[in-house]
Amino acid sequence: MLKDIVKNLKPSSTLKINELSKSLENEGKKIFKFGFGQSPFPIPLDIVDELKNNAHHNKYLPMQGLEKLRKAVAKYKSIKKDYNYNSENVIIGPGSKELMFLLQIIFDGEIILPAPSWVSYAPQAILGRNKIQLIQTSRENNWFPSGSEIEKIILKNRNKNYLLFLNSPNNPSGQICKNLKEISEITNKYNLIILSDEIYSELSFEENYNSISNFCPEKTIISNGLSKWCGAGGWRLGYFIIPDSLKNLRDSINVLASETFSSVSAPIQYAAINAFQGDHKKFINHSRQILKAVGNYVYENLKSNKVLINKPEGGFYLMPEFLDKKFKTSSEMCDNILKDTGVALLPGSDFGFDKTRMLARLSFTDFDGSKFMRETQNEQKIDNDLISKLAPKIIQGVDMLKRWSEST
Predict the structure, then answer these.
(1) Residues 118-141: what's their mean pLDDT?
(2) Domains of the chain
(3) Which of 118, 181, 329, 408 has its CA 20 to 30 A from that of 197?
């Protein structure tokens, strides 16, 4: 009845932990939702108003996306990247996740995944019947692969096609890739295509965000959307920017789009135009300021000789490693943490790490982002007193987790 290819697949762990957390809360248990990564902030009101104003649109739109929206995305990204993209380079999808899935279906070759990788990359590769080449990265290199590690895989068979997934700022580590030039040299030397997942790029804590597309734009597919910076995960609108040199991939994705999702919701596409044409710099800066302050609080108060952790650089994740804990798997460890403390985390094994390594992903978004924005001003210094007042579950959850880490 079921195809072999899907028999061993499980529900996405990020969605599963969200449902489990809600279920435990409904039972009256106090849960610190550090497992599910979702923007805590509201969608900017001008974009919401545009959705209301365009709710009457009920016709199918072009399968590649509304032309005016694609032009807005292309212009926005051309300025950001200092590279000339046009509307034909843009595909609008029902979330970037669906577009990644279609790419995995059409790509004929091997997928290079750095561990840690977002939980859906590998299952999608399996469904696309693509072989996965996993690179185990190190904390010292910000959890990103080196050029030589990528080259080593390619040299095993230079005749194959390779697609490297590069996610910066990274989910689950919260780190930014610093060796882009080195990776671009390998990209240009060999038959390598890169999917640059930049869904957290607007939430980079430092200015002047760089992506691999700044170094090898003709080899890079850019993936992004509205879910993180705009707080519109439930709207399900993402996009790919595919350069002219990869036109065959773009055309094939359009064919599959026509046979799967047809086109993205019309009112949402019309509303999204304002997300790229409007000025949301103040909203984004305020969001980043809050996330940076909260993330640094978690980092400073959790790191110890029992917990190894890198300082967050973007997005809303940290990836602590718990030392001296006697569990067989990171999944078993996270189950114990949830049972003993009420803190929900995701195990490192869900992101490609060896299951015996006690790594976990921590999302620091369990607070009311609307209230936090209302009660603070852009550029205002956010100290621990404000975090205690406006993100009390972060304070309490981190304290519970620290006590657990120090217990024998």
Answers:
(1) 94
(2) 4-43+281-406 (3.90.1150.10), 59-277 (3.40.640.10)
(3) 329
